[in-house]
UniProtKB/TrEMBL annotation:
Keywords: DNA integration, DNA recombination, DNA-binding. GO terms for biological process: DNA integration; DNA recombination. One of its GO terms (molecular function) is DNA binding. SUPFAM superfamilies: DNA breaking-rejoining enzymes. Residues 12-111 form the Core-binding (CB) domain. InterPro entries: CB, DNA_brk_join_enz, Integrase-like_cat_sf, Integrase_catalytic, Integrase_recombinase_N, Integrase_SAM-like_N, Tyrosine_recombinase_XerCD. Pfam families: Phage_int_SAM_1, Phage_integrase. The lineage of its organism: Bacteria, Bacillati, Actinomycetota, Actinomycetes, Streptosporangiales. It comes from the Bacteria. It comes from Trebonia kvetii. This is Site-specific integrase.
Length: 354
């Protein structure tokens, strides 16, 4: 296992099987951020086991449930700044799910190695037994699927107005993030040779994506103008080819712009615009929803977004209740007309009321 991980979470070094499992994932080429997230979640679980005096290798479902209870009641670092937590207390539902993933995968590994007979972390898989009311596997923490937030027209205009005062780099990054529905990592990882100005497309390399699926996506003519202006400015920072977006701070001048720098920029501008819910991922939700509004088929949107499954795409698309009502009314007009058409037609000869 990476010594940096054991240095960050010493508990990993005290459990041979845990370190072995993380080492295998690292050797398989998983993204460093994924390994780091798995290490954190597993380390917190191991510490919980040590606190309760249980052996994580032979732990039961009750031990895992105790870990979940601890996460549910853990005070938030944000303290009084927390507006709402969907789990009711402690960590949010999404964070609880994230913490349990490495624990479940760790026990999958122990089962595959013959160390255990079963996995104490339930997946909540659909089974025929559950379908007919039987007792099938259930997740320890029910997953909550919340509607993604996207800005209304007025809020989007507020954000655009605030970004107009930003440097060329930041304006271009927002435009590309929306035009191409780019994730934060995909946007910040773009290189100069990923651009094709002649066809107004960018190449999203597989190694920078969450699903490891490369794709080529277009951008609009206004974004092309922003790109040309930024490239002229970029030459004043560095003439070397490589990362497209460069830091211009005195400490990191001409270095690749980090994910955190972009996140802080978006957060600052969102607060200035009076739209605090706007984030680096909002543009992706908004773009995919706009494509759905324009009548794109879900499979085309999934390809555009780089999703492996259309199920993921459907979670991103957020049509408002009013838009759904308009679609329903438009389609039901034809349905209703067809259903009552026979009533308006003359009855066949010989037919009569009974």
């Amino acid at each position: 296992m990476d010594t940096a991980l054991s240095g960050k979470w010493p508990v990993l070094g005290r459990h041979e099987r845990a370190a072995e499992w993380l080492g295998i994932w690292a050797d398989l080429g998983r993204a460093p951020r994924t390994i780091d997230a798995y290490a954190r979640g597993l380390a917190e679980y191991l510490e919980s086991c040590e606190g309760s005096g249980s052996d994580p290798v032979t732990a039961t479902r009750a031990d895992v449930a105790g870990f979940v209870r601890e996460l549910r009641t853990r005070p938030s670092r944000s303290g009084g700044n927390v507006i709402a937590l969907d789990s009711g207390a402690g960590l949010s539902n999404a964070t609880l799910q994230q913490r349990l993933v490495p624990v479940r995968l760790f026990y999958d590994y122990l089962v595959e190695e013959g160390v255990r007979d079963s996995n104490p972390v339930g997946r909540g898989a659909y089974t025929p037994a559950r379908r007919f009311g039987g007792a099938g596997p259930r997740p320890l923490v029910p997953r909550m699927e919340k509607l993604p937030w996207i800005p209304g027209e007025a809020e989007w205009l507020q954000v655009l107005g605030a970004f107009r005062a930003e440097p060329a780099r930041n304006r271009l990054m927002l435009a590309l993030a929306y035009d191409a529905a780019l994730r934060r990592e995909e946007l910040c990882s773009l290189r100069t040779d990923d651009l094709d100005p002649a066809h107004r497309t960018i190449r999203v390399r597989a190694e920078t994506t969450k699903t490891r699926r490369g794709r080529v996506v277009p951008y609009s003519a206004p974004t092309g103008l922003l790109l040309a202006a930024y490239l002229r400015h970029r030459n004043t920072v560095s003439r070397e080819r490589g990362p497209l977006f460069l830091s211009e701070s005195r400490r990191n001048r001409a270095e690749p712009l980090s994910l955190w720098s972009w996140s802080k920029t978006v957060r600052r501008v969102a607060l200035d615009a009076g739209v605090p819910r706007f984030s680096t991922h909002t543009t992706r939700h908004l773009c995919l929803t706009d494509l759905a509004r324009m009548g794109w088929e879900v499979h085309a949107i999934a390809t555009f977004a780089g999703h492996r499954s259309t199920d993921s795409t459907l979670r991103y698309i957020h049509l408002s209740g009013r838009e759904l009502a308009e679609k329903l009314n438009a389609s039901m007009t034809h349905v209703h007309a067809w259903r009552v058409q026979m009533l308006a037609e003359p009855a066949a000869a010989g037919g009569g009321a009974r």
